[in-house]
Structures are given as structure tokens and as C-alpha cells.
Amino acid sequence: MIAIDLGRIGYVDALALQHRLVAARTDDRVDDVLVVCEHDPVYTVGRHADHGNVLDAATIPVVRADRGGDVTYHGPGQVIVYPIIRLTGPRRVRAYVDALLAACIRVAADHGITAHAAASRPGVWVGNDKLVAVGVRVQRGGTSHGLAFNVDPDFSHYAGIVPCGITDGGVCSLASLGVDTTVTATAATLVDALADTLDRPVRWVSPEDLDGVELAA
């Protein structure tokens, strides 16, 4: 498995890249890939989302996403990871989601934070506050979309939505929990954790070294 860091990239551009990578992975033109990035501020709306959970669409763009889940926010101060991988084995989708959650919980634990997953609520939580949003798509055994890990985002941007449609929960970040770290450092730790929980050795490559797919449309 390879990992690439795209830095700051618009959500629409990243979504188009995911589609190209999924096609390339299906055709065996690339290995499994972890796409790591940050986004400009955006609200994304899942396939079955309640659009009433977008409270203010005037300030931050709203984009439809072909993933599960409801409405979420992406922006600077988050580590975004989009795994483009091929799944095998029984209960593969459940095992895959569990692996994503376990990696995020491990990163939190590395900072002394007790985080957990809840069957009734998507994502990773610290108490009643969400630390990591998770929304995936699995089609013909191939994955896309992924997770957004809050390192130090602008919490005021969450005021425009009901995050994931959950009215009785808040949001948190490593920074709000007293952790002094960076997006870059968290991304590196998270990729290592994902390599372990997904049971796939990982190596970093530059975007320019990614063979088999055009990074730009």
C-alpha cells in the first residue's frame, strides 16, 4: 500500500481524483492507496442525508458526496484520509470500517485520550463529542471516501450544520483536548496506524511518482 500527501486541495478536485484512483485500482494500474490531504472549508452531504441538517449554505460551499453518512464539515486543521483499497474476505466491509475506527482510536490513545466507537453513532468519540468523522463507500469490493480527524479545525464552521445529523452530540479536536501537535505529525501517525489495522505495509510516495493515474483532470 502506498500513501500520498496532496496537501491542501479542494473537495471537488479530491473527489474527482478518488474516482480516477478507484478506476485505476479496479484495473490493477495502481496499488492500494491512502490519499492524505486537507480541504478548503466545505460541507459534504451523503447519499441519504437529511438536507435539513444544512443550516447555513450561504457562507461555506455545499457539495453532494457519493458516500454513506449525513452532513459533515471538512476544512483546514483536519487530517483527511481517503483509502482506495481492494477488500477481501468475509464480513469485509464491517472489518474495514472497524479497522478505520481502531486506527483513529489508537492515535488518540497515543496522546493519552480515551476515544471510542459507538454502534449507534458513526465516527470516533471522546465522551459525547466527535473527534473523527467516518463516511465510506464500498462498491464491487473497492473503497473510497474515508475519514476526517480533527486536529485543530475552526469550530465556528460547524455552526452551519447538524454534524452527521446528530443533535445531542458535539465536536472536539486534539487541540481542544489539550494536545499540541500538527496536521502533518498526526497524518504520519495515522497512516502508520492504518497500515497496522488494515494489515498492509505502507510506503510514502510523492504525487509525481504515482504511476497509472493522472492526478489532474
Characterise this structure.
By secondary structure, the protein is α/β, with parallel strands linked by helices. It has a single domain (2-209), classed as BirA Bifunctional Protein, domain 2. It has helices at 11-26, 92-110, 183-197, and strands spanning 2-9, 33-39, 42-45, 62-64, 71-74, 78-84, 116-118, 121-126, 129-139, 142-150, 170-171, 203-204. Strands 1, 2, 6, 7, 8, 9, 10, 11 and 12 form a 9-stranded mixed β-sheet that branches. Strand 9 and strand 10 form a beta hairpin. Helix 2 (92-110) packs across helix 3. The two termini are 23 Å apart.
Topology:
Blueprint: E1 2-9, H1 11-26, E2 33-39, E3 42-45, E4 62-64, E5 71-74, E6 78-84, H2 92-110, E7 116-118, E8 121-126, E9 129-139, E10 142-150, E11 170-171, H3 183-197, E12 203-204
In total, how many beta strands? 12
Which structural class matches the secondary elements? alpha/beta
> Separation of termini?
23 Å
- Beta-strand level of the residues, as a percent range? 25-35%
Helix content: 10-25%
Can you summarize the main beta sheet? 9 strands, mixed
Features:
217 residues, three-stranded mixed sheet, BirA Bifunctional Protein, domain 2, alpha/beta, globular, 23% helix, 3 helices
Please summarize what this structure is.
Helix content is 23%, strand content 30%. It has helices spanning 11-26, 92-110, 183-197; strands spanning 2-9, 33-39, 42-45, 62-64, 71-74, 78-84, 116-118, 121-126, 129-139, 142-150, 170-171, 203-204.
